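Task 17 of the worksheet. Students: predict the tertiary structure of the chain below and write it out as structure tokens. Keep your answer in the requested format; marks are given for formatting as well as content.
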Amino acid sequence: MPALQEHLGSHDAPPSFRLDVQLHDLLKKSPAPRPILVPGRQPEAFPEPVFPQHPELMAQDDNYEANLAEARAGKRRWTAPLVYRAMNGWLFPYWKSRLLPGQFHPIIAYLFTEWKCNLDCHYCWAFDNTVKGMTEDVAKRSIDWLHSTTCRVLAFMGGEPLLRPQLVHKASYYAAKKGFWIYMPTNARLLRPDVIDRLADAGVAIFNFAVDVVDEKPGLPKALTPVRKYFDYLIRKQYKYGYAVFFNINICRNNHEDVKQLTEIAREHGIATDYHINESPMIEQEHFKHYEANDTFIHQQDWPKVDELIDWLIEKNQAGYKMVNSVKRLQDMKDFLRGKVEPWNCRAGQNSLIIRVDGTLAPCFPMYSATHDWGTIENHKLEVPQLNEMKKSCQTHCFSTLNHNLGFCYNDARVIKWVLQQAAHGFQGVTGSFA
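Model answer:
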């Protein structure tokens, strides 16, 4: 990205930020302080969850091998209530966002209950262990506010959300009762069987199992081996509870063989994979301590090897491996490495948003540390003209898989075609990429 060379420094050091300098300074040096959430009349609390709601689901799955065989073949069976849950989370809010007046119609919201983490992945700037987590009052008010909008997908975020399993259990139970489709990302170090049972019983729809290596490496602690027992339990119980699981894998400079091994492990267990290209921060992060001597960031001399890995992933995708990423999106990773990103219909701030631990808002995850005033829950200031002007620059430096998938899907013809395809198969075995 030639426009960034002024602040990239030496080739071996990652950039302190990858956004255009002018926009970066505008977002990070706003003259106004970040807004403060107006307190409620009195702190609100979640109702105490009933557990277990479904004691019969806690039993061993005697049909595991048959269910696994179907999942490997892409024919996992879903009950009518689970199909309706997915449609209520995604499809109905999409059509409401197309039909209702106005331009702020969130479909998915990322609730940052934590900005702390129990691991220190050297590529990750998305945590700061000096920041207090979200209070129960802010969490409940956030869900209530989101429920008053079109939003029906609630994604917990961090940091590591499971640092306080009681809070996310309460929030999941409450949100599920209000009709939310719930997404739970985790590094799985705290994903004990009792936590899995509580979250699944509460109504979590999908577990994003973040893992980068098989065995832990320096700078890459998100490893499968230390949590293999938790993974095996999570995989087995998905057919009882009706949730889904996928591996979230970050392609770094030093984990290419691990990416291949994890891909094959996912295939063996009938689950999908989602891949990201290791990115330096979009906005400067004062607390990030791994800018120097970082073996995870990809350098120019690594591009040919990364290209080979991406080509391998494309071959597996075309061979029927379940992947969130489409072939086109995998191919685009090569261009992103070389600073070539075309505008891609980013819907952040309109159909997606983030809620920080203090209840303030931002359009997307990379903007968490921006000081620009986008408002708070119950009083948003996400305005399309400002967002469109910002996106002229920021989306050409961004490779967000989640927001890119949302932007790609925000097309009536594609949605209708996809729904008809799924309807023709009775909404069974729906996995993999939208494209």
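Marker's comment: The domain at 38-424 is CATH 3.20.20.70 (TIM Barrel). Confidence is low (pLDDT under 50) at residues 1-11.
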